[in-house]
């Protein structure tokens, strides 16, 4: 075989390896990016799943196990929503940068806490040193329905500056619960 034919094959192999690498990266990004569905869509999927499992033979152990596990998860989700008041309606995650010991992802959450709507956008930097993983929140942006209240506006601004998501969710839960109580009380007196 002459050198020009060998070179052509080597070039083709290199091009295919590059294409495989790009496709693998795209696949990994698609696996990491996720969008969660609304409660209605989840309930439709659950009902559809139930119909399928009821229509199939009941002798399968794995089918009954999955059905029991699904019911347990539904119960746990319902309990957590009642306990915290949070009801997430959507979530999306996009990987911005990924290296061997560092990952940067953009997250976008929206939902309701009692009767207050919110939307949170942030960037999460995860770093891995040896066996220890640390995470840092940056570029926090909070959009709330009741920003006209000056106390809420100050709190949201402060939380965005400090990038403390845990404080935001804890405080929002308490505030929204009492906001709901005040709203009901004022409706009672109208």
Automatic annotation (TrEMBL):
Highest taxon listed in the record's lineage: Eukaryota
Coiled coil: 6-33
Keyword tags: Coiled coil
Pfam family, one: CENP-P
InterPro entries assigned to the protein according to its UniProt record, in alphabetical order: CENP-P
Any Gene Ontology CC annotation: nucleus
Protein name: CENPP protein
The species this protein was found in: Origma solitaria
Gene name of the encoded protein: Cenpp
């Amino acid at each position: 075989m002459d050198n020009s034919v060998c070179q052509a094959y080597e070039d083709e192999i290199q091009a295919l390896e590059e294409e495989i690498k790009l496709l693998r990266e795209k696949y990994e990004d698609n696996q990491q990016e996720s969008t969660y569905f609304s409660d209605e869509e989840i309930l439709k999927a659950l009902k559809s799943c139930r119909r399928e499992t009821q229509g199939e033979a009941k002798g399968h152990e794995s089918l009954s196990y999955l059905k029991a596990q699904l019911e347990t998860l539904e119960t746990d989700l319902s309990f957590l929503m009642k306990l915290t008041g949070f009801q997430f309606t959507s979530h999306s995650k996009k990987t911005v940068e990924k290296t061997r010991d560092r990952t940067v992802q953009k997250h976008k959450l929206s939902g309701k806490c009692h009767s207050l709507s919110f939307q949170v956008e942030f960037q999460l930097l995860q770093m891995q040193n040896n066996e220890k993983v640390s995470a840092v929140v940056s570029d926090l942006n909070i959009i709330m329905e009741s920003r006209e209240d000056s106390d809420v506006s100050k709190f949201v601004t402060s939380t965005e500056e400090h990038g403390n998501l845990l404080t935001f969710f804890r405080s929002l839960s308490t505030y929204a619960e009492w906001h709901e109580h005040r709203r009901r009380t004022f409706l009672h007196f109208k």
